[in-house]
Write a structure and sequence with these properties.
Yope Regulator, Chain: A; 6 strands; six-stranded antiparallel β-sheet; alpha+beta; 115 residues; 4 helices
């Protein structure tokens, strides 16, 4: 596979810390040559090669992109709207990983509220 299974296990463990209604609505899907974690069918975070991919609400993009170890997701050679990559250095601790997962969940919940 094109992603690190141990890294995927870290993400799964972080989702287990979420409330029951979130945990029971998380699914996994192979995407972008890696794996994505979806909440109620909306992408939250994923793994592409060694990077964490995170969906971020538009209003927070500038602030998140100014964070160390974060860059625009340029999967198709151009930045993708509301997507960022976080390098391994940016998610060295479980607290850092959980913060990015919560950002991804925020994005998914916002998209669901727009429906």
């Amino acid at each position: 596979m094109a992603y690190d299974e141990q890294f995927a296990q870290r993400i799964r463990a972080s989702f287990e810390l979420q409330p029951q209604d979130v945990r029971t609505n998380i699914t996994e899907k192979k995407m972008f040559g890696g794996i994505a974690f979806l909440y109620c069918g909306k992408m939250t975070v994923g793994i592409i090669k060694e990077n964490l991919m995170v969906r971020v609400v538009s209003s927070k993009m500038d602030r998140i992109l100014s964070t160390e170890h974060v860059r625009p997701m340029d999967f198709a050679k151009r930045p993708m709207k509301e997507f960022v990559y976080v390098s391994q250095e940016g998610i060295a601790t479980e607290e850092q990983l959980l913060n990015y997962i919560e950002l991804g969940l925020e994005h998914a919940k916002q998209k669901l509220n727009e429906l």
